[in-house]
Amino acid sequence: MEEKTAAARRKEELAFKARNGWTRVSDEEADRAMDFCKGYVDFLTAAKTEREAVDYTLDLLEHSGFRPFDPNGSYQPGDRVYCNNRGKALIMAVIGRRPVSDGLRIAAAHIDSPRLDLKQHPLYESQELAYFKTHYYGGIRKYQWPTVPLALHGVVVCRDGRTVTVTVGEEEDDPRFVVTDLLPHLGQEQSKRSLADGIRGEELNLLIGSRPFNRDEESEAVKLNVLHLLFEKYGITEEDFISAELEAVPAAKPCDIGFDRSMIGGYGHDDRVCAYPALMAALDLRVPEHTAVTVLTDKEEIGSDGNTGLNSAYLRYFVEDLAACFGCEGRHVLSASQCLSADVSAAFDPTFPEPFEKNNTSYLNYGAVINKYTGARGKSATSDASAEFVGAVRRILDDAGVIWQTAELGKVDFGGGGTVAKYIAALNVDVVDLGVPVLAMHAPFEVVSKLDVYMTYRAIAAFFA
Ligand code: MN
Ligand code: MN
After folding, report:
1. What is the rounded CA–CA span in Å between residue 78 and residue 93?
2. Over residues 60-79, mean pLDDT
């Protein structure tokens, strides 16, 4: 029998070694991961916008014993409450055994995703074709969005106060909409544009009709016909678009990717792929040690600004009200709290290795990924979690047998990004990013690994426990 060399032994003791998660889990655990993702695919299918994610979640909460939070209420360990912020963001909490002054365990994910919003005067006709003008929401690579079937989701608030919910393009026989592109035969001039400039913001026009209203010699009869159809179906007029939020999102349904079905492709993984695990971890709780708070927020993709984003005071107000229920101060509760900012990270793409630094990137199937910091350039615009807090999270994950990895977002000075972490850090909470590695992030069709989704759920569950 061959003896290991001293170097081999020493290396085993001291050097860090990562392995593909599928080689580290039992068959039973692999099955659990595959099963968990069935529920996730249902969520992803039903909740393509922040409003739909809130509606879907409210349903689950009501069936799981959660009740609207009452700032004047009195609460016992195990009680389950939630706060609905304008139908676009949610906070839910399960009261823990320890006093809230010992701090909360918070998991915060976002439920908005990049998309094409309609402008306030969207409808126009050109050369007898009807279109909607759009304004993209979040960071998109504009060239990826033409020639993709799109659906329209959102609300229209009418002059008379009615709110009309619109969902077109999800049912089998629904129409879809599309942004067109040039044919290669005539694309020579356009092909000289840079990739960033290949499709411009004002070229993201949604094709929505081509048939005139009737045989009259009326101008813009195609546009009129669209207005006519919208009025017939929804009772809305052109002016009502001014007070509407209509979002064009990819119409495709999520599906398994690969012969081995190990991955999921779909629109809006960022960040429903962390929102769903955070939600499931909350629903699983009975009586946690610390009060566990799950935040599903809006507006992350445009910088968390706006009153439904985490740069608003809505989380702080909730914690202040919760603290008051127990006779303590919100700032003391927050200062003792810890948070996982549950957001996705960029997975290494072997086809495009250039922007990744191989020792410090996340890999598909290597588990939930911790980003100690995100930001850009010299760690600008990020919270950069402390060694102490990363150490604490690391122990929790290892003790629970969670498969995890650590990464930063690409090579130094190659770009960057941000999450809600810095807004939570601004409340004097210890916070670090943890989530799922994603291929083709922010594209109309993104890819994640089922094992990573499951491990993110297990990570948040261990953090809450
Ligand atoms: Mn995100
Ligand atoms: Mn994003």
Report:
1. 9
2. 98
CA of 432 to the centre of ligand 1 (A): 14
132 Cα: distance to centroid of ligand 2 (angstroms) = 25
Please tell me whether residues 72 and 119 are part of one structural domain: no
> Quick check: is 7 in a domain?
no
The pLDDT assigned to 219 comes to 86
For position 138, which CATH number holds?
2.30.250.10
**pLDDT tens readout for residues 283-325:** 999 999 999 999 999 999 999 999 999 999 999 999 999 999 9
Query: How much distance in Å is there from the Cα of 400 to the middle of ligand 2?
Result: 28
| 450 CA to centre of ligand 1 in angstroms | 18
pLDDT score for 302: 97
110 CA distance to ligand 1 middle (Å): 7
Read off the pLDDT of residues 331-375 as tens digits, 9 standing for 90 and up: 999 999 999 999 999 999 999 999 999 999 999 999 999 999 999
**What pLDDT digit, counting tens, does each position of 432-452 carry?**
999 999 999 999 999 999 999
* Residue 442 domain flag: yes
Q: What is the residue-wise DSSP string for 40-61?
A: HHHHHHH-SSHHHHHHHHHHHH
Using the mean position of ligand 1's atoms as its centre, give its distance from the Cα of residue 401 in Å: 25
Q: Are 142 and 106 found together in one domain?
A: no
Q: How far is the CA of 197 from the centre of ligand 1 (A)?
A: 24
213 alpha carbon to ligand 1 midpoint, in Å?
43
* Rounded Cα gap, residues 110 and 93, in angstroms: 16
Q: How far is the centre of ligand 2, averaged over its atoms, from the C-alpha of 202 (Å)?
A: 22
> Same domain for 400 and 445?
yes
Distance between Cα 208 and ligand 1 center (Å)? 30
Q: Residue 263 and residue 105: Cα distance in Å, rounded?
A: 30
Instruction: Give residue 453's Cα distance to chain centre.
Output: 13
Q: Report CA(381)–ligand 2 centroid distance (Å).
A: 15
Task: Give 288 Cα–ligand 2 centroid separation in angstroms.
Answer: 30
Query: Do 146 and 34 belong together in one domain?
Result: no
**Nearest alpha carbon to residue 343 among 292, 412, 407:** 407
Beta strands in 52-161, from DSSP E residues, in sequence order = 67-68, 80-85, 89-94, 105-110, 115-126, 129-137, 150-157
Cα-to-centroid distance, 271 and ligand 2 (Å): 7
Please tell me the total count of domains within the chain. 2
Whole domain around residue 292: which residue ranges? Answer: 18-113+267-464
Residue 10, domain member (yes or no)? no
Whether residue 355 lies inside any domain: the answer is yes
* Residue 273 alpha carbon to ligand 2 centre in Å: 11
